[in-house]
Write a structure and sequence with these properties.
Mean pLDDT: 80
Shape: globular
Distance between the termini: 63 Å
Radius of gyration: 23 Å
Strand order of the largest sheet: 1-2
Number of helices: 21
Largest sheet: 2 strands, antiparallel
Order of helices and strands: HHHHHHHHHHHHHHHEEHHHHHH
Length: 438
């Protein structure tokens, strides 16, 4: 018998017992927090999982399977032009569904194979900061303004931080360029336009399926028209997806047509869009998993499943914690959490230098799995967090974490890691101040 193991079990049992024994169920705030936790979780499950997250996982799977790592890296390798390298590095995160730790293997391989420090660091930052899953959920939950600010801030951050790192360590970079390290050419299985067509078709389906309802009293205009016809538009792009599945991925046309027919029928007879969407996702998963002609098709769905396994449990935990600690706010409903609003207001309320700096520091050291920062920020903002500190946390949090820093230190060394972290915190603080003042 391992004594330490048994002591650890005893301690956990004791902690659970003490919590159950002293649980303040008679407290109105505690009861409200429990209700808020369940309410927020139910709302997320109904509004965001099927229509938003599941399609987004398939998009992430496309990048993981159909776009080779070499095809991405060759654009910001040691011999690439600077404007091209930084442009690709700073926006590549929009098509990568990664968190601050998932990006590390890619960054490490890029750095070790001779990529410039600046573009590599730009990629390291932008990957988790503006991945497509997080941007969609940020704009949908925290508002269009915050989503745009996150995109702009992250892209500018990536270029500025990468350029600063390259300038600070210019002697090392000069030596690296002289070594003339070349990346091997990785031939693509199919023309890039076909992969791009498949990818952007899925993106457009995701965008229009989740098109938000316009504000109260709005009954005209382009936004209202798109919202009123969003399922017709989504179905239109569904036809493009059929073309892609049959002619690009070479799936059996009978199987694809059958799934499309059942989905279409359910779309007309079902009162909820969740039913046809679930059927379409299930059908796509089945026909790709059992496809024997193209191994990549099966790998696509398996990769999608890997993203779901990695993200969904952590997102659920994040939603539960956010609801309990910070309350539930949606559809003009506000349910208080366990943390008093005035505590949040005192630390991250307003738009002071301290509130932005504090939000940046907390974000830099906390680990945010992909998407978990969104429900947490939603609760914080409802509890009194200023929009400036909220953006500061969004720009510092997803790209940094304590585990992330430890791995980066092993790749770049202690000094470069400290400089990188300092640059992120300072930039996040300044960006928060500017955004909060607008």
């Amino acid at each position: 018998m391992e004594v330490k193991k048994e002591i650890k079990i005893l301690l956990w049992i004791s902690v659970v017992f003490v919590f159950a024994y002293f649980m303040p169920i008679e407290s109105e705030r505690f009861s409200s927090a429990i209700y808020a936790m369940l309410d927020l979780t139910k709302w997320y499950a109904q509004e965001h999982v099927v229509l938003c997250l599941l399609p987004a996982f398939f998009i992430a799977g496309v990048i993981a399977v159909f776009v080779s790592q070499g095809a991405v890296m060759k654009y910001f390798g040691a011999n690439a032009k600077k404007w091209l390298a930084y442009t690709v590095a700073s926006v590549s995160g929009t098509i990568l569904a990664v968190c601050s730790c998932t990006i590390l293997p890619l960054f490490s391989s890029i750095h070790k194979r001779g990529a410039g420090l600046g573009p590599a660091v730009a990629f390291l930052y932008s990957g988790p900061a503006i991945n497509i899953l997080a941007i969609i959920l940020t704009a949908r939950i925290l508002g269009f303004e915050m989503g745009v600010a996150r995109i702009i801030g992250a892209v500018v951050f990536a270029v500025v931080i990468g350029s600063a790192m390259s300038l600070i360590y210019r002697k090392e970079e000069r030596a690296k360029r002289e070594e003339q390290i070349n990346f091997p050419n990785m031939p693509e299985k199919r023309p890039m336009w076909q992969t791009a067509f498949h990818f952007f078709t899925l993106v457009l389906i995701l965008v229009f399926a989740n098109w938000g309802k316009p504000g109260e009293g709005v009954t005209s205009g382009a936004w209202y028209w798109i919202w009123s016809n969003k399922w017709y538009i989504t179905s239109f792009f569904g036809l493009f997806l059929m073309f892609s599945l049959i002619y690009i991925l070479k799936l059996n046309w009978k199987h694809v047509s059958l799934v499309a027919l059942v989905t279409g029928i359910l779309g007309f007879i079902s009162s909820s869009p969740l039913v046809p969407m679930l059927v379409a996702i299930a059908g796509l998963s089945i026909i790709t998993l059992f496809d024997k002609k193209e191994p990549e098709n099966k790998e696509w769905t398996l990769s999608t499943w890997d993203f779901a396994k990695q993200i969904l449990p952590l997102l659920a935990i994040g939603v539960l914690i956010a609801g309990f600690l910070l309350g539930s706010t949606h559809d003009n409903t506000v349910i208080a959490g366990i943390i008093p609003n005035e505590w949040v207001s005192n630390l991250v309320g307003g738009n002071s230098v301290f509130s932005n700096f504090f939000a940046s520091i907390v974000g830099a050291f906390m680990y945010f799995a992909t998407l978990t920062e969104v429900p947490i920020l939603q609760g914080l903002m409802a509890a009194g967090m200023g929009k400036g500190p909220a953006l500061a946390l969004l720009l510092a949090g997803p790209s940094l974490s304590l585990p992330n820093m430890l791995v980066i230190r092993g790749v770049m060394g202690t000094q470069k890691t400290l400089v990188y972290v300092l640059l992120v915190v300072v930039m996040a603080t300044v960006s928060g101040l500017i955004f909060g003042a607008i």
